[in-house]
Amino acid sequence: MTKIRTLDSSSPQFETQFRELVAPATAFDPEIERQTADIVENVRRRGDAALLEYTKRFDRVSAQSVAELEIPASDLRSAFDALPPEAAAALQAAAGRIRSFHQRQLDGEWSFEEADGTVLGQRVAPLERAGLYVPGGKAAYPSSVLMNAIPASVAGVRQIVMVVPTPDGVRHSLVLAAAHLAGVSRVFAVGGAQAVAALAYGTATIPSVDKIVGPGNAYVAAAKRRVFGVVGIDMIAGPSEILVICDGKTDPDWIAMDLFSQAEHDELAQAILLTPEPAFIEAVGASITTLLPQMPRARIIEASLQARGALIRVRDLLEACELADRVAPEHLEISADDPRQWAERIHHAGAIFLGRYSSEALGDYCAGPNHVLPTGRTARFSSPLGVYDFQKRTNLICVSAAGARSLGAIAETLALAEDLPAHARSAQMRWRA
């Protein structure tokens, strides 16, 4: 059997073992932070010139100007038109489902009038410009383009600026085609911390944005952390996570492959099974052993399962839900009879997949809900990426003359208590007029 720890919640050592297992993986590297700080500062000061130097150094792409690195909209359309029919249809279907789901998130504006004529309300407006970072290099992630750009488009963001590294000048057609379908406005073939800095501060060629979203490597994460405050960011994502609650009645091969689906991301990814059935733990362990050699990324999966994976026997599904809540996983599958009753007991999860047919992989690509989810227990206070991340809310206050009298007296009293006499006088001048 492939080596993956098995735990039992009834064991005296379980609490210590469980805390060690679910402790968030940290990837903070002081040297990466130092190098990133230098890159960001250089781009802030020198703009396009620094971008050209870094693109030549890291991506081995030479250009005389950053304008040469902008990929025109016609190339995006051509990339889509050149796709094999099956790939084009899949990309369109996924984009359609993602757009349909996120259109339901649009918040309406509202207001109400009080008895004295005062009107209070909320106005919702999209951000002016959003930046989207898309990983390049060895892997292509068209799904990241769809999941990040479509909510921005649905929200009404005026301009979506995408940056994507193209090492050695290699451009991935699916990524460009996805940008075409998702409504991306401009695309630049630059990447790394330097691209994040360009989006934050702007250069002579790349416009500054209001918010930066999208995944990247440790340098990209460090750069997003550094520019936060100058611009908004979606999150600092950690290693991917999946936790499966199963009653033991699902095909063990299905569960093993669901665990693989996150473990294959990287060695720090986490995959955990909670079940009350010891025989099912044995069956899933056997499936892991049988299926792992068939996987092209077997080395990564095995390292992930050994370092941070676990098959855990629990007393019952109620205890499974309690433990799942402590983990607050990015992805939670409830593979059981009547999964909704157990979902009601879950308070903390990025996304919950209900039933035996709801594999996490469908959520990654085409179910519709966003796959950009909180990791590292941040689901306790964070939410999936959505339309609301590309909107800002403005409070509306229209006080009537009568309201100025009643509210003014309250405001005057509180302002004087805080030793802010100009505040008090401002309120007083109206209600005592």
Topology:
Blueprint (H helix, E strand, L loop, with lengths): L4 E4 L5 H9 L7 H17 L1 H12 L10 E2 L1 H9 L3 H19 L6 E4 L5 E8 L2 E5 L8 H14 L3 E5 L9 H10 L3 E3 L3 H10 L9 E3 L4 H10 L4 E2 L7 E6 L5 H12 L6 E6 L2 H14 L6 H11 L1 E4 L3 H11 L3 E5 L3 H5 L7 E4 L5 H6 L25 E8 L2 H17 L3 H11 L2
Parallel strand pairs: 1-12, 5-6, 5-8, 6-7, 8-9, 10-11, 10-13, 11-12, 13-14
Antiparallel strand pairs: 2-7, 3-4, 4-15
Helix pairs in contact: 2-3, 2-8, 2-9, 3-8, 4-7, 5-6, 5-7, 6-7, 8-9, 10-11, 16-17
Would you write up a description of this structure?
The strands form three sheets. This protein has a six-stranded parallel β-sheet with strand order 1-12-11-10-13-14, with helices on both faces. It has a six-stranded mixed β-sheet with strand order 2-7-6-5-8-9, with helices on both faces. The longest helix has 19 residues, at 85-103. The relative contact order is 0.14. The protein has helices spanning 14-22, 30-46, 48-59, 73-81, 85-103, 142-155, 173-182, 192-201, 218-227, 252-263, 278-291, 298-308, 317-327, 339-343, 360-365, 401-417, 421-431; strands at residues 5-8, 70-71, 110-113, 119-126, 129-133, 159-163, 186-188, 211-213, 232-233, 241-246, 270-275, 310-313, 331-335, 351-354, 391-398. It has three domains: 5-27 and 238-367, Nitrogenase molybdenum iron protein domain (Rossmann fold, 3-Layer(aba) Sandwich), CATH 3.40.50; 30-107 and 126-233, Nitrogenase molybdenum iron protein domain (Rossmann fold); 399-431, no CATH class. With 433 residues, it is an alpha/beta fold.
